[in-house]
Amino acid sequence: MKVTVVGAGAVGASCAEYIAIKDFASEVVLLDIKEGYAEGKAMDLMQTASLNGFDTKITGVTNDYSKTAGSDICVITSGIPRKPGMTREELIGINAGIVKTVSSSLIEHSPNTIIIVVSNPMDTMTYLVHKSTGLPKNRIIGMGGALDSARFKYRLAEAIGGPISDVDGMVIGGHSDTGMIPLTRLATRNGVPVSNFIAADRLEQVKEDTKVGGATLTKLLGTSAWYAPGAAVSGLVQAIACDQKKVYPCSVLLEGEYDLNDICLGVPVILGKNGIEEIVNIPLNDAEKANMQESADAVRKVNEML
Ligand SMILES: NC(=O)c1ccc[n+]([C@@H]2O[C@H](COP(=O)([O-])OP(=O)(O)OC[C@H]3O[C@@H](n4cnc5c(N)ncnc54)[C@H](O)[C@@H]3O)[C@@H](O)[C@H]2O)c1
Ligand SMILES: O=C(O)C[C@H](O)C(=O)O
């Protein structure tokens, strides 16, 4: 199993590290445009191999796509991150050009690859990869919901005052400060609805804290987060590489599902060796359906800027 990660910055390196630590891939190629940067990150990470006990070989290259040839999975993290006070959508001007060039170079050397898009604004970047490459929809996956759901679970556990392993929950919709839809109605603590443990106003706070999870970290860090994003990507890569058939919310091209068409938006999918094996249709109530439509409208406005 060969995995390429484009962008050896904060998220790309974290993603390569978690993939290596989980030890399911034979090779990870890190590629960056900055001279020597990916080589340096790869060497540093390889020097953790004996300490962390993995055999995955990590190599770094400066913009040499021939070294990515035959990758089963390619992750795109190249592009600029936001600064405090910015929205993800403001990154489109610079990141759209980067994502378009990078995806085309990747496919030239790995025509059968599955692409995971991370660069922001992620739903629009995923749509751009669809429009510009024409790859089948099961092989283009946007990562956002897996991260947002991890943040949701963190906030739920905080509100409950119990362990994160006790809670389950999912965030669908757009990966944006206003477009995320944390499904509080369906969140559980060991199978019991969380509303049994959290008062309605506190649950509303959990929802709001989850939606601005990325902005909160950006304010604290001065740039956007990388550990949880890297871990979330590694989870998707592992589900595909190991044909796990796990359910994750991912941004995927919708063709009628959730009453939406010609848009990439976060919905639950089953991930396996073919990438997106199936889009899972969960029955939403009227309020959630309306939230989905609003979220889609906002993403469409950003898509129009492409
Ligand atoms: N979807 C998500 O959930 C999620 C989570 C976190 C970050 N992000 C996004 O991921 C992107 C990367 O974030 P980061 O914190 O790693 O930024 P970063 O600045 O640390 O790293 C980005 C890297 O991309 C490289 N790069 C730029 N243009 C390139 C090109 N054409 N080819 C190859 N490499 C190129 C840069 O040299 C840099 O090393 C941002 O757009 C950020 O908003 C998305
Ligand atoms: O918040 C950001 O800009 C980065 C990423 O989308 C995140 O949610 O951490």
Can you walk through the features of this model?
NAD(+) binds at residues 7-12, 32, 95, 118-120. GO terms for molecular function: L-lactate dehydrogenase (NAD+) activity; L-malate dehydrogenase (NAD+) activity. Its EC number is 1.1.1.37. With 306 residues, this protein is of the alpha/beta class. The chain has a domain at 2-144: NAD(P)-binding Rossmann-like Domain (Rossmann fold), CATH 3.40.50.720. Helix content is 42%, strand content 22%. The protein has ten helices and 14 strands. The chain has helices spanning 10-22, 37-46, 49-52, 92-109, 122-133, 145-160, 200-211, 213-221, 227-241, 286-303, and strands spanning 2-6, 27-32, 57-62, 73-76, 114-117, 140-142, 167-168, 171-173, 180-182, 188-189, 192-193, 246-255, 261-272, 275-279. The protein has a six-stranded parallel beta sheet with strand order 3-2-1-4-5-6, sandwiched between helices. Strands 7-10-11 form a three-stranded antiparallel beta sheet, with helices on one face. A three-stranded antiparallel beta sheet has the order 12-13-14. Strand 10 (188-189) and strand 11 (192-193) form a beta hairpin. Helix 4 (92-109) packs across helix 5, helix 6 (145-160) runs antiparallel to helix 7 (200-211) and helix 6 crosses helix 9 (227-241). It is globular, with a radius of gyration of 18 Å. The two termini are 33 Å apart. The mean pLDDT is 98. Bound molecules: nicotinamide-adenine-dinucleotide and (2S)-2-hydroxybutanedioic acid (LMR).
